[in-house]
Amino acid sequence: MKILAPFTLLFVLVSLFVNAKADVPPDAGYKRITQSLIVESQEDLDEYRFFLKVGSDLKEFTFKKGERIGIESMGGGSFYRNGTFLAVPKVSLAELSETPTDRKLNLLQQAVYDGKVSGTIELIRHGFIRDVPNAEAAVAKDPIYRIDKDGEKGLDAVLVSGGAIDTKVAASSYSNDPKSSGFWVAVVGGSLMTLAFIFFGAWAIRRSKKPRHINASTK
């Protein structure tokens, strides 16, 4: 049982770090806002299934021609800060099982989450929680996207109103914008947690291999 103590301590430290990270306030002159994602289409999209990937979760959404759906964040904290809206061809999912398993996601969902389904289209990368300048926060509106058929890509998402252009899928997910204090807290905290995990892992292995001394009683 002693060997589990360091890992228990590490788990507590990780939990404290995550909570602290979620509570880091935005930089001066910025305000933290929450925005839903609104999606609509005037096309018949029956040949696709649509999923939202957020954190470790995957949720499916269905909508009909001319219908608009509103998608809210699936959780709180930095883990659910951003999400990706995916379109997956039904024919590519035909051989995948949707039978519940002992895991959080079934085989079909896991394949979609891992990006292993051919023909998957990343339509939108959306920030449900964003730190924006105060002036922008005062007029910010939930982004509305229209899903259109595209001869080259299959489908495309067009920003109709609200939101910001940079929430659309870009060629690179890296941003040259100045990083907030929360970003650097995450980087430093993540690095420290990685080092701590390596240290405790090595310590546990050495301890498990350490020979045990048996005191033999003499008559």
Summarize the structure.
The protein is of the alpha+beta class and 219 residues long.
Overview of the structural elements:
By secondary structure, the chain is of the alpha+beta class. It contains five helices and ten strands, in the order H-E-E-E-E-E-E-H-H-E-E-H-E-E-H. Strands 5-2-9-10 form a four-stranded mixed sheet, with no helix packed on it. A four-stranded antiparallel sheet has the order 4-3-6-7. The protein has a two-stranded antiparallel ribbon with strand order 1-8. A hairpin with a 2-residue loop joins strand 3 (48-54) and strand 4 (57-61). Helix 1 packs antiparallel against helix 5. The two termini are 33 Å apart. The relative contact order is 0.18.
Question: Characteristics of this structure?
Answer:
219 residues, four-stranded antiparallel β-sheet, alpha+beta, single chain, four-stranded mixed β-sheet, 30% helix
Characterize the largest beta sheet: strand count, sense, and whether it forms a barrel: 4 strands, mixed
Estimated radius of gyration: 23 Å
Strand line-up in the sheet with most strands: 5-2-9-10
Helical segment count: 5
Q: What is the share of helical residues?
A: 25-40%
Average residue-wise pLDDT: 78
Q: Which class of secondary structure composition applies to the elements?
A: alpha+beta
Q: Provide the low-confidence segments as ranges.
A: 7-20, 165-181
The end-to-end distance, rounded to whole angstroms, is: 33 Å
Name the overall outline.
Answer: flat
Question: Total strand count, please?
Answer: 10
Strand content: 25-35%
Order of helices and strands: HEEEEEEHHEEHEEH
